[in-house]
Amino acid sequence: MPETIPTTSSGPTSKETTVYVDSSKDVFDSSAFDPVLARKLALANTAIDQIGMTPFQWKLFFLNGFGYTVDSLLVICQSIAMPAVTMQYGSPGKSLKGIALASQIGLLTGAAIWGLSADIIGRRLAFNSSLLLAAIFTIIAGGMPGYISFATLVSLYSAAVGGNYILDATTLLEFLPVNKTWLVTFMSIWWAVGYTITGLLAWAFMSNYSCFPTAASGACAYQDNMGWRYLHFTIGGLTLMLSLLRVFLIRIVQTPRWLISQNRDAEVIQFLTDLSAKYDRQFDLTLDDLRSEGDVKNTEKSVWSVVRIKAHFSGLFRTRKLTWSFLVIMLNWLVIGIVSPLYHVFLPYYLKSRG
């Protein structure tokens, strides 16, 4: 029989609701290390399930999907532009593909910074600012006068969008009812949308506004090689529009599950109350229910304290099962990170050599 931890919630309807934390199928049983957090998350999850799927979550699905789209847009954008930029300005090193390297360094840096900061200060700031910064740097990249300056801007817009991928998935997941969490996996469809848009734009710009493939390096004039610039201006403008939609179409708040982990119970209830009132839904959870469970561990300390920052890393290795899960996922992403750049770096040169 699965191990469960019962907790009781009574709401405004005076209907007693018993919630269970079922850890039998979890990779990480949080109740073994912080039972208060486990019980509070169970209560919050039940409240979200009672409210159900609303237009708010559907908007998030599309707006977060824009982030997936932009992620693939920008990765492919620099890959397609690289031969044209190299033809116009030459490359500092014959064997070093500086633009591709700049992109990968930026993606790695962005993933580390955005991911960790979102755990510390919450999802909202990173969610609202990552696409906006990516749009600004992409537009500026289209006007760069040299190889080094262009590679620098590529690294910057890659860093801006680097952590956006996981932020979009995490933010959506933390707002969804349990029976709709499959939408996070379905989000991958937005990657295909990004590839398609970039391919169509490149077909229009690169084929009509680029130097001939036979042109010598450095012999390609500015006015004859505007395709890669038009590509960046257009994708940057599209990204800017999508980033503004994310800010103004839906006013994102901190996710209820993250707020629970920070012991900010009143804000959780406020969000659930506002959401249920707007869409005429009901839920039973009250502020007293959450507070009666106690305080989550270490939340009395600053979010920048050594103890709490260390927990973000040590928590990945709490159990053998969790450690293996983390390592396998990292290995999968490592392989993807090796194969994908090889493909994107090689493909433009292959197509160029075949006319």
From TrEMBL:
* Pfam families membership: MFS_1
The record's keywords, sorted A to Z, are:
Membrane, Transmembrane, Transmembrane helix, Transport
Q: Could you list the residue ranges that cross the membrane?
A: 60-81, 101-118, 130-150, 156-176, 183-206, 230-249, 322-346
Instruction: Check the record and name the InterPro entries matching this protein.
Output: MFS, MFS_dom, MFS_trans_sf
Localization terms from the record: Membrane
Instruction: Please tell me one Gene Ontology term that the record gives under cellular component.
Output: membrane
What is the top-level taxon of the source organism?
Eukaryota
| Topology in membrane | Multi-pass membrane protein
GO MF annotations, alphabetized: transmembrane transporter activity
Record has Membrane as a keyword: yes
Where does the record place the Major facilitator superfamily (MFS) profile domain? Answer: 57-355
Name of the protein in question: Major facilitator superfamily domaingeneral substrate transporter
At the highest ranks, the source species' classification is: Eukaryota, Fungi, Dikarya, Ascomycota, Pezizomycotina
